[in-house]
Write a structure and sequence with these properties.
The complex is a heterodimer of chains A (211) and B (314). Chain A is mainly α and 211 residues long. Chain A is built from nine helices and no strands. Chain A has one domain: Rna Polymerase Sigma Factor, Chain: A (Orthogonal Bundle). In chain B, the strands form two sheets. In chain B, strands 2, 3, 4, 5, 7 and 8 form a six-stranded antiparallel sheet that branches. Chain B has a two-stranded antiparallel sheet with strand order 1-6. In chain B, a hairpin with a 2-residue loop joins β7 and β8. The chains are: A mainly alpha (211), B alpha+beta (314).
């Protein structure tokens, strides 16, 4: 289908079949299925920043995060006919983003872009292999310049193994409930709580020198 | 409340219960842990949220315009999602049925059964159960035009009923042969009535009952439990061609069948059978699949010896 209205503003957005701002996610999805491009634009505007932030914390690489966030919405757009409203749309979109991020991390490992040297060291070999190097690039927005404390916690989170990183970002940064985290990661509630608890413990251990 | 429960409650980030507060006041480790975790949360809360760049929508629009819906379709045919598991289930089911029907039957046959003797008891039982009248009617049907044409013409129902009987020709042939050896004159008249395949069955049959074997002896048939055949000690020995009698609690060889495993293995009359495959003889029926029939332990002339069973076919 054409994608004329998406990304535009002003008068063209007003051509939407229904006023998108007041609709729920599911209503927007249904409208998008019927060809309302403005409805999809509204979905993107609601989730682009949360997804970008989530992926940035996950990958510790802003450009990669933006790229994968766009890829997430491309997939949502082309798979919208297969989406069922049995569960929340936010769960659906975060799940796609998580899968893309995990795939990206595995690609990095295959390309041997992962360095085992870093600021944080682990006693456990398996965890050490999951270490991701911190992003040294300067973020495009000056507001993103973080103080030392923020930099420390950012790098500590990025150094967590991926199976602990996703749950703690979703719970403590994105402030999802345990049930939502379990739904996004397709885990049981008990497993989710256990992983979040373990992730917090790992974070405390990494930050011991800071306390 | 223990430390683990306290941590679970503390990490929910809700107000602590009275029990959790009490534990926190009394547990130094939990106080330290909770203080550190609170500091971690403060650091996380201090993280600035990262927003999407301003040209996010523009690039997204370009990517969607460039991409094709075919790029995101499932890479496999949806039908395979159901067909493959179904095929695997059907294959497993077929293997189970094949294993149950064919392989189990082979396992229940003892190795010595290759001596062509396993039907002797069945023949005897079949013979004992067939009344003479039925025997005669069958004979009449085999040659109706010669001996009793009236039976064939006046009683077509009987004829159609007897059509199924030839399937049992071989079985009856053995029975008749047995009757020949026992009933003398009556058997002679029966043989005169037979023609064709029945006659050839009679003349080719070489089965003979061992001497002293009572044709009217009723052998207790052990119920067949879930497809497994059970054999008593006497039956096992009969399968080997060895007829025994109990004397003072000992199983003594009374006769040995010709061309049987017993004869080939040089079992003698008067031998006392002590054990089969090293297992002492008991009156308890044994499942057929557990019988190997490799060795017999016998006492001959006061000396105990172990005899390796050999089939004449080998």
């Amino acid at each position: 289908m054409a994608f004329d209205k998406f990304g535009n503003s002003g008068a063209e957005e007003l051509q939407s079949i229904v006023p998108s701002k007041n609709l729920s996610d599911h209503e927007l999805i249904e409208a998008t299925k019927k060809g309302d491009e403005a409805a999809f634009a509204e979905i993107v505007s609601r989730y682009r920043s949360p997804i970008t932030n989530y992926l940035y914390r996950f990958l510790n690489d802003y450009e990669e995060a933006v790229d994968l966030a766009q890829e997430t919405f491309v997939r949502v757009y082309f798979a919208i006919e297969r989406y069922h409203t049995d569960y929340a749309f936010s769960t659906y979109v975060y799940r796609i983003a998580t899968n893309l991020a995990i795939s990206e991390i595995r690609k990095r490992k295959r390309r041997q872009l992962v360095s085992l040297t870093g600021f944080f060291q682990f006693g456990d070999d398996e965890e050490a292999q999951d270490f991701s190097p911190p992003d040294k690039k300067i973020l495009p927005d000056e507001d993103l310049i973080e103080n030392e404390q923020s930099e420390t916690i950012r790098r500590a989170i990025a150094a967590l193994p991926e199976k602990y990183r996703a749950p703690i970002i979703l719970r403590d940064i994105e402030e999802k409930t345990y049930e939502e985290v379990a739904g996004i990661l397709k885990l049981g509630l008990g497993t989710t709580k256990s992983r979040i608890s373990r992730a917090r413990k790992l974070l405390r251990e990494k930050l011991q020198n800071y306390f | 409340m223990n430390c683990r429960d306290f941590l679970f409650e503390f990490e929910d980030r809700n107000a602590l219960t009275e029990a959790a507060t009490l534990h926190l006041n009394n547990c130094l480790n939990c106080r330290k842990t909770s203080a550190e975790q609170t500091q971690v949360w403060q650091m996380i809360d201090g993280l600035r949220r990262v927003d999407a760049p301003k040209d996010f929508d523009f690039h997204l629009k370009a990517r969607i315009a460039k991409a094709s819906a075919n790029d995101f379709k499932p890479r496999y045919l949806p039908v395979l999602r159901y067909v493959l598991p179904l095929s695997v289930i059907v294959l497993i089911f077929t293997l189970i049925v094949f294993n149950t029907v064919f392989l189990n039957d082979k396992n229940t046959v003892p190795q010595v059964a290759e001596t062509n003797f396993p039907t002797a008891i069945e023949q005897e039982n079949t013979f004992a159960q067939i009344p003479n009248e039925q025997f005669e009617v069958t004979n009449n049907y085999q040659n109706p035009n010669v001996e009793n044409p009236a039976v064939a013409t006046s009683n077509p129902d009987k004829q159609s009923q007897d059509v199924a009987i030839p399937k049992k020709e071989t079985e009856f042939a053995a029975v008749r042969q047995t009757k020949k050896t026992l009933n003398g004159a009556s058997q002679k008249s029966i043989k005169d009535n037979f023609t064709g395949s029945i006659d050839s069955s009679l003349t080719n049959s070489t089965e003979k009952l061992p001497e002293g074997l009572n044709p009217n002896q009723k052998i207790e048939v052990v119920p067949n439990v879930s497809g497994v055949k059970f054999f008593t000690a006497a039956e096992i020995l009969l399968e080997l061609g060895i007829e025994t009698v109990l004397e003072n609690g000992k199983r003594v060889v009374k006769s040995v069948r010709q061309k049987s495993v017993g004869e080939t293995s040089n079992i003698k009359n008067g031998d006392v059978i002590e054990a089969i495959d090293g297992k002492k003889l008991t009156d308890e029926p044994t499942p057929g699949e557990k019988i190997e029939g490799k060795t017999l332990t016998v006492t001959r002339g006061g000396a105990k010896k172990e005899i390796l069973l050999r089939s004449h076919l080998n």
